[in-house]
Fold:
Amino acid sequence: MPDEGGRQVAIPWPHAPKGASALRPCRLGARHQARDGETGRFEARTQAKGTVPTGNSSVVSFSDAALRKEVVEAAIRAPSGDNCQPWRFRFERDRVEIYMLPDRAQSFFDFRNRGTYLSIGAVVENIRVRVACSDLALIAHYPAGEPAPGMPTVSGSLRPGIVADGARARLAALHERTVNRRPFLPKRIAPEKQKAWLADQVDGTAIAIIESRREIARWARVVYLGDRIRWTHPTIHNELFSKILFSRAEADSKRAGLEIDRLGAGPFAASLMHWLQPWSRMERLARCGVDRVLANQTRSLAFCAGALVLVTIERDEPEQWIRAGEQVQRLWTTAHQQGLCVQPLPIAMYLDQRFQKEGAEHFPPAHRPLLEQMRGDLALLIGNRVGAMLYRVGLGLRMSRPAVRLPAESFYDDLVVAP
Ligand SMILES: Cc1cc2nc3c(=O)[nH]c(=O)nc-3n(C[C@H](O)[C@H](O)[C@H](O)COP(=O)(O)O)c2cc1C
Structure:
C-alpha cells in the first residue's frame, strides 16, 4: 500500500481460517447501547451513512467506502505501546474485525500481549464513537480466552443506534487526543470533572482516582522503581532506542514509533538520546547512579500530577484487557475534552506482572530487590486485582499536534462490502 511519500507500507495480514469465529457477543456500557424510541437529549435519525432502509426496518452495514475509511481513521488514533500500531481491520457486511499484529507489538513490556489487548480496546472505543456519529451502535464480540492464531482479537457488529448530542465533539477529541510527557501542574482536578470520569464505566473494569499527596507519593515510588529497571535492562534499553524517531524527516517517513520531540526530554533530546543510545554507555552511567536521576525525574512527574488514575480488572484475560482499553480511552478522551493532559505510567505494573508469572528469570540479578520492593508496594496498593493502566492527569501545556500514524489505507484492504 503506497503512503503519501509513495513508499510501500506493508503490514502483514493474518489469514483467518474460514468458519465460525470464537468470539461471543457482549452487552455494551449503557450510553453506547442501541436504544429504541428514546427521546429528550437523544435525537433519533434513521438514514445516516451506513444505514440501508429496507421497508419498515433498517439493515446497517459497512458497505459505504467513506464510512469504512472514517472508521479506520478514528480507530487508529488509539494509543499503542511505543506507537507501534499493532492492528489490522477487516469489514464484512455489518461487521468489523480487529486483528492483533503481534510482530509489530514486540516489546518486553507487552507481556503476553496484555498491553496490545488494551490498545485494541481503545480501538473498539474509537470505532464506537465514530459509528455513533452515523446514528449507529457497535456491539462488541470478545474472545473467549486467548484468541487462536489467525482469528480476530475482537469484532464489532453494527446496530441502528441513537446519537448522543456530543458524538461529533467526542470524535474531534479522539482525533486530537495525545500523550503528553511534559510536567503538569500539581493542582487538584475539579470534582465535577472527576465525576464525569466515573459517569460511564465499562463493565468489568474499576477506576480509582488517586489524589491525596500521600497516596500519590506511594504510587510515585512504584513508578520510580519501574523506571530504574527500565533504564538498566539491556533488552528494554535496545527496544526503546530502536523505536525512537530521531528527526522530523524520520518521523514523517516511518510514521510509527516515538517522535524525539514528544518525549518530554527538552530541546536537546536528540543529542542526549543519541549519546545514551549505546547500551555499554548506559551500563557504565548506571554504575554512577544515572538511572536513579532519570527515574527520580519520572517520580517527580508522577508526584506533581493533578491526580493519578488507576484502571484495574478482576482477571488477567484478553476480554478484560480489551475492556480496560475501552475504559482507558473513554477516560482519556473525556480528560482531553476537559482541557486536561494525560501520560500513561504503567511500566512498573507490567514488569511486576511478568515477575509474578515468571519470577526474575528475564531480569539481570541486580533487579531482584527492585522487583521485590515493587511487588510488596503493589500488593498493598492494588490487592489481588490486575493493574491494567495507571496514568497521570493534570493541567499542562498542550502538545501542538497528535502523534504520527501510518496511513489509514495500510490497515485494511478496501474490498467491496456486501450491504
Ligand atoms: C499499553 C500502553 C502502554 C503505554 N505506556 C506508556 C508509557 O509507559 N509512557 C508513555 O509516555 N506513554 C505510554 N503509552 C502511550 C504511547 O506511547 C502512545 O499512545 C503512543 O506513543 C502514541 O501516541 P498518542 O497516544 O499520542 O497517539 C502507552 C500506551 C499504551 C497503549
Observations:
- The mean pLDDT is 88.
